[in-house]
C-alpha cells in the first residue's frame, strides 16, 4: 500500500451522499491537494468512520533508448563548477 499518513486535521465543511452514492469533495480541498478528474482513492472503514486514501500513481522511468557514453558520467563537481 502506498502513501503516508498525515496527522494534521482540518475541516472543510460537509459533503452529502446523493441518491447514486456519490460524494463531492469540497472545491477548496480539491484545489489544495491538486485532485483532478479520475483521481483514485482506497475506501477504508475505520470503525464507524470512512477514510478516503488517495492512490498515488507509480513512478515511471523514461529513457531515450540509447546507451550512455562515458561523457554522461563526468565528475559532478567538474560538471557543476567547471574543470580545473
From TrEMBL:
SUPFAM superfamilies membership: AbrB/MazE/MraZ-like
Gene Ontology terms, MF aspect: DNA binding
Superkingdom, natural source: Archaea
All residue ranges annotated as the SpoVT-AbrB domain in the record: 15-60
Signal sequence extent: none
Disordered: annotated segments: 1-21
Biased composition (Polar residues): 1-17
NCBIfam families linked: lp_hng_hel_AbrB (TIGR01439)
Protein name listed in UniProt: SpoVT-AbrB domain-containing protein
Amino acid at each position: 500500500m502506498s502513501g503516508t499518513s498525515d496527522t494534521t486535521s482540518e475541516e472543510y465543511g460537509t459533503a452529502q451522499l446523493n441518491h447514486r452514492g456519490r460524494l463531492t469533495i469540497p472545491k477548496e480541498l480539491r484545489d489544495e491537494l491538486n485532485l483532478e478528474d479520475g483521481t483514485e482513492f482506497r475506501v477504508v472503514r475505520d470503525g464507524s468512520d470512512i477514510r478516503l486514501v488517495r492512490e498515488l500513481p507509480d513512478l515511471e522511468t523514461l529513457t531515450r533508448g540509447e546507451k550512455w557514453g562515458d561523457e554522461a558520467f563526468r565528475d559532478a563537481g567538474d560538471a557543476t563548477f567547471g574543470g580545473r
